[in-house]
Amino acid sequence: MKIGVLAFQGGIEEHIHHIEALNCSAIRVKKVLDLSEIDGLIIPGGESTTMGKFLDFSKLLEPLKTKISEGMPVWGTCAGMILLAKDIEGLEKSYLNAIDITVRRNAYGSQIDSFREEVIIPKVSNKKLPLVFIRAPFVTRLGKEVKNLCEIKNNVVAAEYKNILVTSFHPELTDNLDFHKYFLSML
């Protein structure tokens, strides 16, 4: 199994480390040709507007939309969640439009408002998982078929629809591998 990590910015190396710790191959995705080499893709955190511009500039946007619509598993963390969302509050344009959710960017505040929680997410693990939130978004609207996997402070912070997983937190910034294992189980 080869897992791609969109390699424009964000927690690229951390995701790669977690994937390799689970005995899978990881490759950095920067161009369209890279999409043909992977079985699934992680879109890491970072700055969603900048990452969206890179998707346009690299000509990856449309081929990536196609791969996702054809069933390739994809997981977006933080900015990745924003890029995958159908709607982004305050913006007319979305990017990949892959999952029927509306997200609010920087919903918990600025960098100084970052925080950590520990919760059990039954579909992912039966033990408490460390969740790291950094300038995190959250979901303000879930489409009818989208599953709510986790809420923090009455806000949806993890959701799933078919081959698409989104989290507003950063599992790659912890030593816990459970979310990465869960994503691999989707392949």
TrEMBL record:
Q: Which GO terms describe its molecular function?
A: glutaminase activity; pyridoxal 5'-phosphate synthase (glutamine hydrolysing) activity
In terms of CDD domains, this protein maps to:
GATase1_PB
Question: Which residues make up the binding site for L-glutamine?
Answer: 46-48, 105, 134-135
Catalyzed chemical reaction(s): L-glutamine + H2O = L-glutamate + NH4(+); aldehydo-D-ribose 5-phosphate + D-glyceraldehyde 3-phosphate + L-glutamine = pyridoxal 5'-phosphate + L-glutamate + phosphate + 3 H2O + H(+)
Q: Which UniProt keywords apply?
A: Glutamine amidotransferase, Hydrolase, Lyase, Pyridoxal phosphate
Catalytic site positions: 78 (nucleophile), 170 (charge relay system), 172 (charge relay system)
EC no. given is 4.3.3.6, 3.5.1.2
Q: Name one Pfam family in it.
A: SNO
UniProt subunit comment: In the presence of PdxS, forms a dodecamer of heterodimers. Only shows activity in the heterodimer.
So what family is this one in?
A: Belongs to the glutaminase PdxT/SNO family.
Q: Which NCBIfam families match?
A: PLP_synth_Pdx2
Name under which the protein is recorded: Pyridoxal 5'-phosphate synthase subunit PdxT
Give the organism, scientific name: Clostridium neuense
